[in-house]
């Protein structure tokens, strides 16, 4: 991805400046970005915008784990860290490092700089056009919306920061906004992005690695599905499905979605390249490296039961590998699963350049099927479900017994199709909270199904309090912001 790589390289010192801070999020003013001498050319605008993508990509481990570790798809290994072992056992605490959000707020901060100062460049650089400015601002709105959508699903109420830090006199102790207000801000950002963002950049690398209209529509659909606005969800999924630049890849090419990436099916993915020193550290999380085998997560037995199904000849192979004494996850690693047999069964560092796929077409299709099911259009939902299964060489469903069975089928299909893609916990949350927590008990049973009986009873009792479904704000973040209140379920832990 030459364009993104070029501008990330130009702004590398600036990126480090943003992401090295340990504060609860980087609001402190960055003098080099508020001084007039920086905002002089369109190249400088694009540099900071591209750096926002890079900052988000540095948070990939967290995005993956936020979407998986509290679900039923993963289990720990002998190399897992203490906090990972705790969460896998259903114990969520305020001091677990995974709940630090500062890097995601760093990405938000960078988009805020672009949105604030980029318009000034229009009068300083006579080669900078209004159309280019609008498109850059649209990308910044898209990235900010995506970041807040992760935050609101994980934490619920979170601080909304829309302005860059320009001087030391600003108040950096920002209070939380409620979930409804955060969703409203996300939709506002997406409306601007939808109006001004490019449909295509002219090459597959930028089309998949930068925000496009298809990416905006995918995020719109995701937000509306989360918000139980099913008509709106279908409206935007239809826009994605109408894009002739997108389509399902054939079954046995599914791994190409993840490596080398930029596939026909991909809509938006975060870019990595080992040769350029931009490494995806998920190789350490999921497969280990060299001869230490120090990977942190492996498929749970529940997941293996799903993927070991004799019919899953495509998606099982694409998702994990068990050609050794250990089972390893292969999505996002950087080469095909066959590579595990090479070089004495060792995972090599050059496998750390697999892109992280945020949205792909199969995901959007299944979201449409989910929305249609809630709208009572079961036959249309079944057609979509069977199209996904046909691609995977899996037997199609012949009948529709009930709306409830269709819900369960879609939830299970997403677990298999999107295994280890950072989707499962959010899918389960939607399922559990829908219609005023109609499926609360079913949600609890799924989440705790892999736990030993004694632990299961304890965790089930915790999850009966739906505030526990949100993550805690890390105790360090609370300590540096006097206006930040802990999420209700975890208040007693810090008193």
Walkthrough of the structure:
The protein has a two-stranded antiparallel ribbon with strand order 1-5. The chain has a two-stranded antiparallel sheet with strand order 2-3. It has a two-stranded antiparallel sheet with strand order 4-8. The relative contact order is 0.13. The chain is 51% helix and 5% strand. It has a domain at 2-70 and 78-197: Serine Threonine Protein Phosphatase 5, Tetratricopeptide repeat. The protein is globular. The protein is built from 23 helices and 8 strands. It has helices spanning 2-10, 12-19, 31-34, 42-57, 60-66, 82-88, 102-121, 130-155, 179-196, 204-209, 213-226, 230-241, 282-286, 301-307, 315-319, 361-374, 378-391, 403-417, 424-437, 440-447, 453-463, 475-480, 491-494; strands spanning 74-76, 158-159, 176-177, 266-270, 297-299, 320-321, 328-329, 356-360. By secondary structure, it is mainly α.
CATH class designation of the domain at 2-70 and 78-197: Mainly Alpha
For the record, give the distance between the C-alpha atoms at the N and C termini, rounded to a whole number: 49 Å
Query: Number of DSSP helices?
Result: 23
- CATH architecture assignment name of the domain at 2-70 and 78-197: Alpha Horseshoe
